[in-house]
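From the shared-data thread, chain only:
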Amino acid sequence: MTRVLIVDDKADNLYYLRALLTASGFTVDEARHGAEALIVARSRTPDLVVSDLLMPVMDGYTLLRYWKADPTLRRVPFVVYTATYTEERDAQLAMDLGADAFLLKPSEPDALLARIREVLGVVPAERLPRAPSGDPRETMHVYSETLIRKLEEKSLQLEEANRRLERTTSLLEIAGRIAQLGGWWYELGANHVVWSDEVCRIHEEPIGTAPDVARAVEYYAAESRPVIRAAIDRCVAAGEGFDLELEFVTATGRRRWVRAIGEAVRDDGGRIIRIQGAFQDITEARRVREGRRELAERLRETLESISDAVLMFDRAWRVTFLNREGERLLQRTALDLIGKTVWTEFPEAVGSQFQQQYERAVAEQTAVHFHEFFAPLNTWFEVSAYPTRDGLAVYFRDITARKRNERRIEQQAALLDKAQDAILVRALDDTIIYWNKSAERLYGWTAAEALEQNAHTLINDRSEEFLDARNALLDRGEWFGTLRQVTKDGRRVITECRWTLVRDDAGKPESILAINTDITERRNLEQQFLRAQRLESIGTLAGGIAHDLNNILAPIMMSLELLRDLAGPSGRDLVTSLEGNVRRGADLVRQVLTFARGLDGRREPVDLCGTLRDIEVLVRDTFPKSITLESHVETTSCLVLGDGTQLHQVLLNLVVNARDAMPDGGRLRLTLQRRTVDEPHEMQALGVAAGRYLVVSVQDDGEGMSPQVQQMVFEPFFTTKGVGKGTGLGLSTVMSIVRGHGGTVQLTSTPGLGSTFSCYFPELVDDTKLSPVAAKPRQLPAGEGELILVVDDEPAIRSVAERILTRNGYQVLLAENGQAALATYREHRDRVAAVITDVSMPIMDGPATIKALRALSPDLPIVVSSGYVPDEGAGRLLDTGAEYFISKPFTAEALLTTIRGVLAGRG
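Structure, as tokens:
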């Protein structure tokens, strides 16, 4: 086992190194200075030595010189480990004297062990003793200078320590005078007791007084002398310490109270050689303490005599006080509770309002007041809790009887107030004489505000309806129906009314009982439901129309490639024009679906300047001449990534709304400007990410909007237009589209001064999307004789698809529905390379056909083609595992590219 000698004059350092090295498997020897280290090493040669530098008797540098001069020890590696010599020249001196390593205290345990193992890791046979380097005389000169420098540093440190000690002693003397606290000691066998200056002052004796033990005891009052004498005897004999409060008499005859503290001091052999301690005048402290005790007693008597129950806790929630009334209410004695934790003694209160409020009072240092029912005692408590310096004081009383009475009164008073309906009683002249809580909630006026008011003028919106209902009531004695009424804040509500004519004992009418139910929300929901049904019907109709139109456009679109080849150079412009119109028609169909069913639009670079110019032309051609159009574009870069048709719809909606807001004419202003949004508060206010935006603003100087209308203007189905003039979907659609493009809409409006809608669109700045793409010569991907099965119920689509595929190297089989497709596939199963199928077909539709084909051939490539897939059809397609989809109408190039990609992917 490797033996390491550690050399250090500090016991703590030796302990640390011994524990570290022993735990790491080393055998450890110790020495407290260089001379002792040489003796230990020569008697039992170590494998390595770790030595401090600054030590008594012989320092580390001297030990290193002797070590390297000893023939037996010079091969043993020498590691310097110091916290005093820390400069580069100190390390260089150690290395010049032959040290193998130089480490600074403190080192991380792992780093220290690693360095020791590194030094030990040299193979013994290869290890040469590290001899001193340089001129010995020069080395000794450096050593002498280093030693002198360190001695000077130590001297300066000792001087500073002495100055600090003097300052500390001065501060202690000041503290002693303030606290009237001093020290004393008595060397066993000596003739006198040594007193500090403050102890002399307490005894009112001259500074330096040193009485013998008997005289020191005589200062104590007669009744205290036996106590202090016995305590001193026990301390001298057995080392038993003492801490006593006793009365004594000063040299001038004044009686004082002091605190005498003593302890024994032992030598290295355990023999008691001295007793020492502290001495403090506590006369004033006892007076204050007695005053506090008397005050506490008076307070306790006061708390015992009051009618409220009082319960006190310390900061650990232990009970510190409970008066007699508290004992009665809690049905527990103070003796039983004091010192115990309240949550342990009353576990039912854990988590209740009691605990929550008490903890809040302590945490926030605020008084709390509350009522709470405590089930175990079947009692309602009124509680007030106040934080104190030591914890919490709680005052509580039993209010169970009061609560029961209040409950009974509340139940009686709430018979009508509990009703969800507004209940009013009116005199025959419509003066309100009763107004329940639900009426307050419905109409906003409190009972105090409504009583003695005329119901006709206070809450009714339409006088004719109200008067007709009143006349019907007087004729028949009761009336049921709906009225449009108004609330305090001007909100209009629809109420379902049940009125009854109340008669006196003689049968003469004397008042009117009205029970009114707010059905505004129900009516609104009914209207929204009807509008939603209408919109859903429009969506269903649009889906059917889209399917049919796409089936019509599909063969035209596919035929364009054939027509382009047949037309020759002179007719290609006509074919290109025809292709543009077909694509425009397809875009319109897709836009119908986007509006009616919420389908996603395409995203491509769109020139907002061009869209704005189109809107300008539309406004100038169709809007009344009383509306003046102004347009201002502040930027030449107008590209955004989006759906051009949807953006056109946004601007069209806004300019139409602006026109409607100016029935008598006015100014319509269109602006487009660039704006950078990068401030956090601006991003938060707009609800958009940081970046550059193109802002299109539509401003009118029409009627404007109130703040209430502005809050609801983007809600679906909200409209300020009359019945038949607006659905309330325009602005909600605008907001939906703009947010879908990563932007937002900001509205500013002032009643009578007009409105401005500003649409923020992220600017397209990706150069790759802006770069013009060079036109490539058309080269349609051709087949290699593969057999393709085309399934579609439209003959024209089947015919054109057959011609395109046949002309481009494919063989084709045709089927008009799924049933025919299955029969054809079974017959040519081994040859069919892929299937193209429609979704909506008679007899067997696309999803069913795909599922049946998958059952026959799980790996068969299937391309789904449709002009419109309803939601339920999309779900069925996903269930069949459809992987490829081509939307009608599609071009011949799209068809051939899709087929080629499918076959290549499965090849």
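DSSP finds 31 helices and 32 strands in the chain.
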